[in-house]
Design brief:
The protein is α+β, with helices and mostly antiparallel strands and about 280 residues long. The chain contains 8 helices and 14 strands. It folds into 2 domains: about 180 residues, Gcn5-related N-acetyltransferase (GNAT) (Aminopeptidase); about 90 residues, no CATH class. A hairpin with a 2-residue loop joins strand 4 and strand 5. The longest helix has 18 residues.
């Protein structure tokens, strides 16, 4: 059990605790797409991990669940879901859930974890790439098909596959950082931009995009408020989905990888950094 001054993280085993998680999940999925409690029990008991964060009143506030798997002869842990209540979304609780899972997996001899992120979700991208040290080389369009839950409704379910090398030097270095880093526009001026963005009132729109860059590093700006954009004008949100899809699908197969996500709070900006990076041999 991992404990903080306002929450504790527990690898649950009690059957009633698993049942309690069905209601907890409705915050994220509504009532139609929750993971049944008996599936979570199977995750926990047969090669998987289910971690729950509780507040001081023993109320569930966060959940991580996943299972060990393999593909193309490669063994890894797939984190199927990691979510925290909205009031904790700007804390390190999501990071702490993954860190607790990392400790458990390393003890079991698992050296790599994977999960999927919506490439237009800046909070999840920043957590996965910048804070945890994950790297993304693969992009899958409309992975789940059209989804009904509030977070995904309206856009096709494109996903980036994040790989987390649990014991690598790069991951250890990122995990050891204590001070949040915020990028300035000066830092980004040296990078080629794959999209040209114009502000339209409170929203940003794509003016143009480029698929002819060959620099060692380039950046891709994404909006920080895609949910607000969807509510205001779904066509703008769809344009962001379709254009960023073209960029990822063009550059990632050509040897680029997403190695960093940076943000500039002053200008309300978030950027993916794509870098030419040879794939590591197994």
């Amino acid at each position: 059990m991992k404990q903080d001054n306002f929450f504790k993280i527990v690898r649950i085993t009690d059957r009633e605790s698993f049942k309690q998680l069905e209601f907890f999940q409705t915050v994220f999925f509504g009532r139609g797409d929750i993971i049944p409690y008996h599936v979570l029990i199977a995750f926990q008991e047969i090669g998987g991990v289910v971690l729950v964060a509780y507040d001081e009143n023993n109320r569930p506030i966060g959940l991580l669940c996943g299972y060990n798997s393999f593909k193309n002869g490669e063994v890894f842990h797939y984190i199927h879901f990691c979510g925290v209540l909205p009031e904790y979304s700007h804390t390190d609780l999501s990071k702490q859930l993954r860190m607790t899972a990392r400790e458990s997996l390393l003890e079991e001899g698992i050296r790599q974890a994977m999960w999927l992120i919506d490439p237009l979700n800046p909070i999840e991208a920043y957590m996965s790439i910048h804070k945890l040290g994950g790297v993304a080389r693969e992009y899958i369009r409309n992975f789940y098909g059209l989804m009904r839950d509030p977070q995904n409704r309206g856009l096709e379910s494109d996903r980036l596959i994040v790989r987390w090398d649990l014991d690598s030097k790069e991951v250890k270095e990122k995990l050891s950082r204590e001070v949040e880093e915020e990028v300035s526009e000066v830092n980004l001026d040296i990078l080629e931009k794959s999209v040209l963005v114009v502000r339209d009132g409170s929203f940003k729109r794509i003016l143009d995009y480029r698929l002819n860059l060959n620099n060692d590093k380039l950046c891709l700006e994404i909006p920080t408020n895609i949910e607000s954009i969807k509510k205001k004008d779904l066509s703008i949100a769809i344009e962001w989905r379709e254009t960023t899809r073209k960029i990822f699908e063009h550059y990632l197969p050509r040897g680029y990888a997403v190695t960093e996500v940076l943000k500039n709070l002053r200008n309300d900006c978030c950027y993916y950094i794509l870098e030419k990076k040879p794939a590591q041999k197994s």
